[in-house]
Amino acid sequence: MLSMSLSNAAEAAKAIVIYFSHTGENYSVGVIQEGNTAKVAKEIARQTSTAIWEIKEAEPYPIKYNDCIARAKKELQLKARPAFQGNPPDLTGIDTIYIGYPNWWGDAPMVVYTFLEKAKIDGKTILPFCTHEGSGLGSTARNLAKAFPKAKVEQNGLSIYGHVAQKDADAVKTAVEGWLKKLGKLK
């Protein structure tokens, strides 16, 4: 059972973890049933006791890795805004959004931008985290800050190798804990 003070509980109630993650064939881990970013998102939600919401694309990305990255590259070049399923959650009363995604071609997938444009994030603090296979956050945090100037996008986001997220839960737990402590989100 998770124990927390009332102030920590109140802070957790003002935050949410929102993420996009890809399943199917992934670079260096093969075919997966739970995405790399999903694993990190769930650990952040666990450690912060916050709600969690998954962005699901309306037209699923291809299962085959090369087909998926080809589509992602084309969407990036076109600055496309692919649709996602459903409507964004109600963010009334939410101050902090942990936003997670795989780093595709140095940026968040375009479906993440679609979501954020519809989610009414002005005035909110955005804490980005991503999975990758060598490029870290890349320019994702800067790109998000440029695209959403009325939100406060933290530039010191968390990046975790996808193969680590997929295969080493203890390393994910440690990395998330260190990041959250650095941000002052854990005591």
User: In what range is the share of β-strand residues?
Assistant: 15-25%
| Topology, number of strands | 8
**Domain module count:** 1
CATH H-level name... which superfamily? Flavodoxin domain
* Mean pLDDT reading: 93
User: What is the molecular shape?
Assistant: globular
Question: Count the helices. How many?
Answer: 7
Ends apart, CA distance between termini: 17 Å
CATH class (first level) name? Alpha Beta
CATH third-level topology? Rossmann fold
Radius of gyration, whole Å: 16 Å
Q: What does the oligomeric state look like here?
A: single chain
Q: Low-confidence runs (pLDDT<50, min 5 residues)?
A: 1-7
Q: Which CATH-level-2 architecture? A: 3-Layer(aba) Sandwich
Q: Would you mind describing this structure in some detail?
A:
The longest helix has 15 residues. The radius of gyration is 16 Å and the shape is globular. Strands 1, 4, 5, 6, 7 and 8 form a 6-stranded parallel sheet that branches. It is an alpha/beta fold. The N terminus is likely disordered. The chain has a single domain, classed as Rossmann fold (3-Layer(aba) Sandwich), CATH 3.40.50.360.
Key words describing this protein structure:
Rossmann fold; globular; disordered N terminus; two-stranded antiparallel sheet; six-stranded parallel sheet; about 190 residues; single chain; alpha/beta
